[in-house]
Design a protein that fits this description.
The protein has about 300 residues and is of the alpha/beta class. The chain has 11 helices and 8 strands.
């Protein structure tokens, strides 16, 4: 007899989107023929974030070459590469008046560079269209290709994100095509090579990990000097996806935030509805202020 999934608690219920700013951003995205991870991954915060005029652009199309068992983004083999996309993203950033832009993508493992050149061009175009706007990337692992990573870093994003998503044991089950050590290596290289961007990673809770494993994963990230950590609840997109093991309470998320800060992360965003780019504009201001303060004391 199948075990019924745990019932979704009250603290995970959100309002349906529909404010004026939300509708305005819908219009901008459709006019520029753009995708957002907010929509493709069915993010529960879309109403909140879009009403605050923040969104995470999804580049390189909306078909992922990998099939992670927790992710709602469609998978398959993409058939084209849109070379005009970076300019359309930049125009949207300017039209939205963003101070901080977040760019992510599907995996494009069929491309020699995994799409790194498109990432770099998107940063350059944003700087052309919206000078002064900071840029945060949430990149795939590029199959561990150091040249692809360097292409992205040479474009000088302020924040480089790559999510570890789960603990080592669960990672092997839910991230088909990924590799736990390869994720750590990507984040380590960004610092070891001397680039000044802050590094960021995220963990999804409720996929079968233990608290001890969570703390070990935090330690792994701090051992390579990751600056920013996000912790959020896994919400199963449908019955064919990885099952939910448990729902963490808001109190547990607060306790885990303290654990992260105690380990030396400069900023920890932790809560049931937190996703990688949730309140990313506030995180960017916090870490950049930290950088300015450190520079003044040097």
């Amino acid at each position: 007899m199948a075990i019924a999934p745990p019932r979704r608690p009250e603290w995970l219920k959100v309002r349906l989107p529909g404010g004026d700013n939300y509708q305005d951003l819908v219009g901008i995205m459709r006019t520029q023929t753009l995708h957002t991870v907010c929509e493709e991954a069915r993010c529960p915060n879309i109403g909140d974030c879009w009403e605050r005029r923040t969104a995470t652009f999804l580049i390189l199309g909306n078909l992922c070459t990998r099939n992670c068992s927790y992710c709602a983004i469609a998978h398959g083999l993409p058939t084209e590469l849109d070379l005009e996309e970076p300019e359309r993203v930049a125009r949207a950033v300017a039209e939205m008046g963003l101070r901080h832009a977040v760019i992510t993508s599907v995996n494009r493992d069929e491309l020699a560079d995994g799409g790194a050149a498109i990432y770099a061009e998107t940063i350059r175009k944003i700087r052309d269209y919206r000078p002064g706007c900071t840029v945060e990337l949430l990149i795939p692992d590029f199959k561990g290709d150091p040249d692809a990573l360097r292409t992205v870093l040479e474009a000088d994003p302020e924040i480089l994100g790559h999510n570890i998503e789960s603990v080592r044991r669960v990672f092997k089950v839910v991230r088909h095509g990924g590799n736990y050590e390869r994720t750590l290596e990507l984040l380590r290289r960004a610092k070891e090579w001397g680039y000044t961007c802050f590094t960021k990673s995220g963990i999804i809770l409720g996929m079968g990990e233990t608290r001890e494993e969570l703390l070990e994963t935090m330690d792994d990230l701090r051992a390579i000097d990751v600056d920013v950590l996000t912790l959020g609840q896994y919400l199963r997109p449908g019955p064919d996806y990885h099952p939910i093991d448990r729902y963490y309470t808001p109190e547990e998320f607060r306790a885990l935030k303290e654990e992260g800060l105690g380990r030396g992360f400069k900023y920890v965003e932790s809560g049931p509805l937190v996703r990688s780019s949730y309140h990313a504009d506030e995180q960017a201001q916090a870490v950049l202020a930290f950088r300015a303060a450190a520079a003044s004391q040097a």
